[in-house]
Specification:
Strand content: over 45%
Largest sheet: 8 strands, antiparallel
Shape: globular
Number of helices: 1
CATH topology: Pnp Oxidase, Chain A
CATH architecture: Roll
Number of strands: 10
Number of domains: 1
Helix content: under 10%
Radius of gyration: 20 Å
């Protein structure tokens, strides 16, 4: 089977935050899970005059789910500091975020660029003395738009 006919696996990926929208942040690239990569076109139903059997569905706008990133807690992370500033002072520094799906040689197969992303939710997993588990940070980002970037 040719390589381009083999579907890629979803467990090898990288997330890149661009400081001030331009410079990659090399410390905050490893996440264990990314979700929320989706866009949807909302429509408005228009009924044709005098005809009850037909409706037209006209596109009105594109909506996006929030981008959700999960990883083991990283102490001293610039991203954590940025989230802390946003959550404690309502001061936001939107940045671009690139999510790349990689092959086994770390070469990008597909990527998605999220523009003007900013934090809207930050969750730390439960602390439980009965469990021996890594503490997980879950970071949720809203953004202006996203587009698929082919490599």
């Amino acid at each position: 089977m040719p390589l381009n006919e083999i579907p890629p696996v979803g467990f090898h990926f990288m997330v890149v935050f661009f400081i001030a929208g331009v410079t990659p942040n090399p410390l905050d690239i490893r996440f264990q899970k990314v979700s929320g990569i989706s866009a949807e076109i909302e429509t408005e139903d228009i009924r044709e005059g005098g005809e009850n059997l037909f409706r037209q569905h006209l596109p009105t706008r594109v909506t996006y789910n929030n981008l959700v990133l999960e990883r083991g807690m990283v102490i001293g992370s610039p991203l954590n500091l940025e989230f802390n500033v946003a959550m404690s002072s309502m001061k936001f520094a939107p940045s671009n975020v690139l999510v790349m799906l990689l092959n086994e040689e770390d070469i990008p197969l597909a990527s998605w660029l999220f523009q003007s992303a900013y934090p809207v939710k930050w969750t730390v997993s439960d602390l439980d003395a009965n469990q021996n588990q890594v503490v997980i940070d879950t970071m949720e980002l809203a953004y202006g738009r996203f587009q698929s970037v082919r490599i």
